[in-house]
Please model this.
Amino acid sequence: MDRALDPSTGDYTGSTLDNLQNAVYIRLMTPLGDYWADPALGSLLHLIQREKDLTRVGMLARQYAQEALQPIVDDGRASEITITETQPHNGYLYLHIQIDTAAGEKYSYEHPVKVI
Model:
């Protein structure tokens, strides 16, 4: 059991969880190469914050998220991770992440990414 992180603030919520939500959040929010103990942990999503709200940016965000979350599948904690994106063109794009765990459970997670 882990202490739950609030994806909108990054603070602890006071509750606990037993799914991969924290692992997903940390891998998406940490810039790739910034974590001293594992330089392969993280994503390139921080680069998108300076991009315009174009369709290609949504596809790029999905690719960055897939690369960042692939180690969760590789180490056997998840059997499949599916990512889709939604762009309402309001300064954000949203990554919808569906995780099928190795135990057969399914979790959904939404991750906002700020764009210009």
Q: What stands out?
A: The longest strand covers residues 92-101. The chain is about 25% helix and 35% strand. The first helix runs from residue 21 to 29.
